[in-house]
User: Fold this.
Amino acid sequence: MRNMDLMDAARLAENSYKGSVHLPPIRLNINESHVQAFLLMDNTLVIPGSNELVDYTKSNLVTGKQKISWDKMGKAAGNAIWHKGFAGHAATIANKLGTLRPTFIIGHSLGAAAAQILGCIYGVPAIGFASPMPRHGKTRLKHEGLVLNVVRNDDIVCRMPPKNFGFCRVGNTEVMHPASSNPGEDHSMPHYIKLMEIERRQGKIVKSWPH
Assistant:
């Protein structure tokens, strides 16, 4: 099973917003409607988050819940129920991958929601940064132990959809605590990386995943 340095994963997530030329060699560039993702030549799947208004209207703000069952994949992740918008985003990526299978998944924000879902479905390690809560239900899923979420305690996106609506993250979560909050900036990858560097030096966060 592949292991990845957390900072390497964070920089891939950050660079995914800059486009394919800022990433290692790419096997498949997914750009379907409002969904973007990059499958690298080493089969790492990198999924950026929201970068345009349509992401919110078609994914983040879509209400409701749904099960996922895709052709050739059977009943996904133990027939789990997911946030409908996040599930649709993940399903688009999986359908575009076709027979290609990632060996590691990295995502930020909306991409972190998809990374949680796809990590459970493919049964591969996944890291989500600024991860929202895509799962509705509490029963532990077969592969969710392979999922790591890195969140800031001052990042409101990481508390959405609300727990009192029955949603949660899947897998493991590392919570970072900045000395002061940065409203409007605390969700961005550059600010995550800065705080990760501090917490890493202090031994407060894992250095690699799986570890």
Q: What stands out?
A: The chain has one domain: 4-209. The chain is about 30% helix and 25% strand.
